[in-house]
Amino acid sequence: MQSKYGTLAQLDSVLEFAAKRQASASLATVGETASGRPIRQLSLGNEPCTAMLVVLAGVHAREWVATGGAHCWIAELADSPPMPGVCLRVLPMLNPDGYSFSRTNNRHWRKNRGGLEGRGVDLNRNFGVANSSWGHGTNNSRSEVFQGLAPFSEPETRAAAAAVKAAVAAVGGDPAKVGVLDVHCCARVVYPPFWYSRASASLATLARVASVLDLQI
Ligand SMILES: [Zn+2]
Fold it and tell me: What are the pLDDT digits (tens) for 168-200?
């Protein structure tokens, strides 16, 4: 089973391939993990763009098919012409420390490898969004949903946040022109943004989009 999914080096080579294949592509390191591994971002499309999509994958270490799928998708995109006006920024391996540990030590490892005494933080609980991410986890560092010592305490979540902010800046500072997709594989569902608060004016539209995507997966 493990051989069906790439090592970090093999997956990284997909990014290198895509960056060389597309004239509009570029590769950047946007963060560094607790173990010193780079967090890489592939940009595709001719900027400036009228809209931007940021795709994250691999937040949870054991969800190999999420990050593997993202790399397959990148390999396909490398052979496709850029979409006019639309740019992509993909961080397909946000948690390389956890991914590596899940391959070598504990297949069911979920968190990163930072936190208290290296026991890891659930990155999905470390984003500074009250009662959705931060505050939705626990303060027990041995728990699978340990949220860390503070919002954005982890380099992986800081890298993701910086990538989204940079994407907003790249489209003139209008967050309505930026979409963010975080790919997991725990269930066949799509959650729209702001689902936690039920307060978004566009929630009905987003829910319809999510329901259409639900039918595709
Ligand atoms: Zn997940």
Answer: 999 999 998 999 999 999 877 777 776 666 666
- Whether CATH 3.40.1260.10 fits 2-186: no
User: What is the 22 CA–ligand 1 centroid distance (Å)?
Assistant: 30
Residue 70 has phi, psi (to 5 degrees) of: -65, -40
Give dist(CA 105, CA 115) in Å, integer.
18
CA of residue 175 to ligand 1 center, whole Å: 25
Task: For residue 46, report the distance from its CA to the centre of ligand 1, in Å.
Answer: 31
Instruction: Say how many Å lie between the CA of residue 16 and the centre of ligand 1.
Output: 25
Give start-end residues of each CATH 3.40.630.10 domain in the chain. 2-186
DSSP code of 175?
G
Instruction: Count CA atoms closer than 13 A to 28's CA, side-chain side.
Output: 14
What pTM, to 2 d.p., does this model score? 0.90
Sign (positive/negative) of CA torsion 174, 180, 112, 132? positive
